Amino acid sequence: MLGYEVNKKLSLLAEVFNMLNRNDPAITYFYTSRLSGESSDGVRDFHFQPVEPVSFRLSFTLKI
């Protein structure tokens, strides 16, 4: 995150997400799930949410 205050009324902000393009899970859960065709007991396994891809966000704030 990098910010710059142009003056007392205007500020700019730039953010970079996953700058190193990591391929890691953001969070991992362990629970029983069942897909169609699997036994009614389900399968106990790890499920994960991947991190977001490389992305950029630019924003500005104007105080009136």
Shape: elongated
**Helix percent band:** under 10%
Poorly predicted parts: none
Assembly annotation: single chain
Quote the distance from N terminus to C terminus: 24 Å
Helix/strand class: mainly beta
* Count of extended strands: 5
Number of discrete helical segments: 0
Strand content: over 45%
Average pLDDT works out at: 93
For the largest beta-sheet, the strand count, sense and barrel status come to: 3 strands, antiparallel
Spatially, the strands of the biggest sheet line up as 1-2-5
- H/E element order: EEEEE
Topology:
Blueprint: E1 2-5, E2 10-17, E3 25-33, E4 43-50, E5 55-62
Antiparallel strand pairs: 1-2, 2-5, 3-4
Structural key phrases:
5 strands, 64 residues, mainly beta, 58% strand, 0% helix, elongated, two-stranded antiparallel ribbon
Could you walk me through the main structural features you see in this protein, from its secondary elements to its overall organization?
The chain has about 60 residues and is mostly beta strands. Helix content is about 0%, strand content about 60%. The protein contains no helices and five strands. Strands 1-2-5 form a three-stranded antiparallel sheet, with no helix packed on it. Strands 3-4 form a two-stranded antiparallel sheet. A hairpin with a 4-residue loop joins strand 1 and strand 2. It is elongated. The two termini are about 25 Å apart.
Short description:
This protein is 0% helix and 58% strand. With 64 residues, the chain is mainly beta.
